Amino acid sequence: MLAVPGMAPLLGISLLARTAITADVMALTLYVVLGLDLSYAAAGGVAAAMTAGVALGGPLLGRVIDRRGLRVVVLATVALQAVFWLSVPFLAYGFLLGAALAAGLLMVPAQAVTRQAIAAMTTADQRRAAFALESVQGELSYIVGPAVVILCAAKASSGVVAWGVGAAIVAGGAGIALLNPPVRATHEAEAAAAARPGRRQWLGARMIAVLAMAFGTTMLLSGVDLAIVATLEEAGQVSWAAAVVAVLGLASVAGGLIYGALPRPLPTWLLLGLLGLVTIPAGIAQDWPWLCVAIVGTGLLTAPTLSTVADAVSQLAPASVRGEATGLQSSAQSAGFALGAPLAGAAIDLSTPAGGFVAAGLAALAATLAGGMLSRAPSPGTVSAVRPASGAGVPVEGEAAR
């Protein structure tokens, strides 16, 4: 996949941007707690504001990319991020809360742009491996980003750390704008110029099924993170949480690489269902070594599930609205991350830390059931992506439902 023209520089600069973006909430949390000397609840408010902004802004930015092009949107978001992160150390809490919402709304759309570009730069038989590699990239960013921020906060002030995160976001976004990767293949650009389908034509039951499964996947991941901490806190081993999370991330990287090399794809509902099933028994582990073992199954299935979601969205969305569709996918995943932890937390409070794993797994199974039912619903108005003349296009509706 790295031999595809333009793929290696795209994934490289996107990794920088995505690593910084995954660390932004941690940087703001540390600034509010350490820089402003406020509570973690106050820090959670800023984090929630930025997360809500990202969830709301994804489809809007994607729609503008569809209409105006990638470079204009990315440069505008880069300028806004530069202003926001430079001003963070000088903002009182109330202003920071509103500014974080605005910054989330206009966050550099590195993840969505990468997925659009992958869909445009690859053929149908390459796309599954490409999206598996993109999921591996995402896992690496989650492993590295927050950890680097925490390490830097031990050596420098929280304001300086915020500036560093902002500088990395700006640099990554500027790099993407400079590369200006294609978001539509040549044949797709010609078709997209003809007409833009209405939202009801492509946002049908099958697309909603995929978005539901995207939501369920990140709900599970968010709940698992909290359940890991709760389990180790009860065992008096909370300092080992970073090691367990690292094992989870590395297992996901391995799973993504393995899945990308498989000769045939697997349905999203099957991968998500298996992910939910292997997560539930992880609550049996009572200390960190056994938890590392128990969480490997969850990790191995994480990147494959996320990659099949991205692949399905790219296939179901017509090229002229792919930006909006990938933005909706990002919004669904952001909402899952935001709601997964409270759900697992409520289960932990009502039972034991093992209840967090059970709640996370059941949420994934519920999303699997909902997605499976929706994907089989009749959707006569759905418009599939344009099939190229070479035949290397998207599957017919039944196959795309995965």
UniProtKB/TrEMBL annotation:
InterPro entries in UniProt: MFS, MFS_trans_sf
Highest taxon of the lineage: Bacteria
Residue ranges that the Swiss-Prot or TrEMBL entry lists as coiled coil: none
Transmembrane segments: 38-57, 69-86, 92-110, 131-154, 160-179, 208-232, 238-259, 266-282
Pfam families for this protein: MFS_1 (PF07690)
Record bears the keyword Transmembrane helix: yes
One GO MF term attached to the UniProt entry: transmembrane transporter activity
Gene3D superfamilies assigned to the protein according to its UniProt record, in alphabetical order: MFS general substrate transporter like domains (1.20.1250.20)
Alphabetical UniProt keywords: Membrane, Transmembrane, Transmembrane helix
Keyword Transmembrane helix: yes
Name recorded for this polypeptide: MFS transporter
Taxon lineage: Bacteria, Bacillati, Actinomycetota, Actinomycetes, Micromonosporales
